[in-house]
Amino acid sequence: MFSLYKKELQSYFLSPIAYFVIAFFMATFSLTFIQEIGNVSSSTYTFSFSSIFYVNIFYFIFLLPLLTMRTFSEERKNGTETMLLSSPLNVTQIVMAKFLATATILLIMLAASLFYPIITSIYGRVIWSSLICTYIGFFLFGLVCIALGIFISSLTEMPLLAILLSELAMLMLILMDNLSVNSFLSGIPVLSDVLSWFSNQTKFYVFSQGLMQFSDLLGYVTEIAVFLIWTIISIEKRRWSRR
Q1: Which of the listed residues 174, 185, 197, 223 has the most CB atoms within 10 Å of its CB?
Q2: Cα(first)–Cα(last) distance of the chain, in Å?
Q3: Mean pLDDT throughout 2-21?
Q4: pLDDT digits over 191-218, tens only?
């Protein structure tokens, strides 16, 4: 599995996609950071970075599908999926290798953004408890989006369609909070509970306040596991249909 993970990670950097995604994320992060500084009225900058991440979530969900569409959709379009599925690795190992490779790109993006808290801590004051929790919450939400994007990529051989569907699905993950409090849907207890469980804005808000609740951690892990299991089922079904 490690060899496939390494191959997948290298493939991102052998194309301009990884560089574009990281550069665009850093550009939006920088612009938001500069705007936040411009709004500071006091001479001492007290900062938690939660507002910056809130703004960048919406840019973020339009960037990640550029990475996830490569996992299976592009493989199928290029005709390399058959060779991949005939490898000694089982489907679970293949899915996990692709998931971890994409998660590594996300980790690199977040590591690059640490430049700004470091600079802020030199010239101002950073609320470290909130900052650390915000990074953890953003990373976990990113993993949820990656797992969702990989699942959608496994359903189609059209990379552009995989990108569009992933962006819509990730947007729905953010808007799930609004649906859960809808007067009609809230009247259906089971459906309301399911929507609340997948409410990512609420989870991220708690993390951004410097708090970590077990229920929110479990919620993120459950979402990741559900999407990865669906991906494994989707790929396994297609694998057996070829036999």
Answers
A1: 223
A2: 23
A3: 88
A4: 556 666 667 777 888 887 778 888 889 8
